[in-house]
């Protein structure tokens, strides 16, 4: 197998992981992984607490509104254990030929390289399959580990956007990264 294998039905395979669209049977695991304060504090839209009903609603929304040219959220599965370990998502602009990438990994799986491997594969997907020009990402400056993932995936730091979002009623700064198609190889 080459480094990345793009399969039908929006499945992406690497050496260690399979990335695939979410299905309803994932809800229990998604709720267990996301019902974690450390996930909540490092993401913009995941609530806390996070119930199984929250997961069901989110997965149903993904299924009912499936439009991979606009948004694609994929479960990250460890191929050796078949465990769902996290999510990688793309929000895309066809007009501007770019996608924003985001990801979360269940805390018990942190430090195993899943986010970096998934981000790299998603970047290749955007450039080689979608034929877009740019992938960009943001992280709260209080979560420098996410910036390390972006750098390992080949992205370059572009700057800090001050007080860009509100989290828990307070303004937060974000660091911005990107990679252009001509830079990724």
Structural class by helix and strand composition = alpha+beta
| Helix percent band | 25-40%
Q: Give, in spatial order, the strands making up the sheet with the most strands.
A: 1-2-3-4-5-6-7-9-8
Mean residue pLDDT: 96
Query: Strand portion, in percent?
Result: 35-45%
> What's the Cα radius of gyration?
16 Å
CATH homologous superfamily, by name?
A: Gcn5-related N-acetyltransferase (GNAT)
Could you tell me how far the N terminus lies from the C terminus, measured between alpha carbons in angstroms?
A: 18 Å
Can you tell me the CATH class?
A: Alpha Beta
Question: What is the CATH architecture term?
Answer: 3-Layer(aba) Sandwich
Number of continuous helical runs: 5
The fold-level CATH name is Aminopeptidase
Low confidence ranges: none
Characterization of this structure:
The chain has 185 residues and is an alpha+beta fold. The chain has a single domain, classed as Aminopeptidase, CATH 3.40.630.30. Helices cover 28% and strands 37% of the residues. The protein has 5 helices and 9 strands; from the N terminus they run βββαααβββαβαββ. The chain has a 9-stranded mixed beta sheet with strand order 1-2-3-4-5-6-7-9-8, with helices on both faces. A hairpin with a 3-residue loop joins strand 2 and strand 3 (17-21). Helix 1 (27-34) packs across helix 3 (52-64). The longest helix is centred in the middle third of the chain and has 16 residues, at 114-129. The two termini are 18 Å apart. The model has no long low-confidence stretch (mean pLDDT 96).
């Amino acid at each position: 197998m080459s480094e990345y294998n793009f399969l039908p039905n929006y499945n992406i395979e690497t050496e260690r992981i399979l990335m695939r669209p979410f299905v309803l049977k994932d809800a229990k695991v998604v709720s267990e992984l996301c019902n974690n304060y450390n996930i909540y504090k490092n993401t913009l839209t995941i609530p806390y607490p996070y119930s199984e009903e929250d997961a069901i609603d989110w997965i149903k929304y993904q299924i009912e509104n499936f439009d991979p040219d606009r948004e694609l959220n994929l479960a990250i599965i460890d191929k050796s254990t078949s465990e769902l370990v996290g999510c990688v998502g793309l929000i895309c602009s066809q007009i501007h030929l770019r996608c924003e990438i985001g990801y979360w990994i269940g805390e018990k799986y942190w430090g195993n390289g899943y986010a970096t491997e998934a981000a790299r594969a998603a970047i290749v997907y955007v450039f080689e399959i979608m034929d877009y020009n740019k992938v960009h990402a943001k992280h709260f400056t209080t979560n420098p580990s996410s910036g390390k993932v972006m750098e390992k995936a080949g992205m370059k730091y572009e700057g800090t956007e001050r007080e860009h979002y509100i989290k828990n009623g307070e303004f937060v700064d974000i660091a911005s990264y990107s990679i252009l198609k001509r830079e990724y190889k």
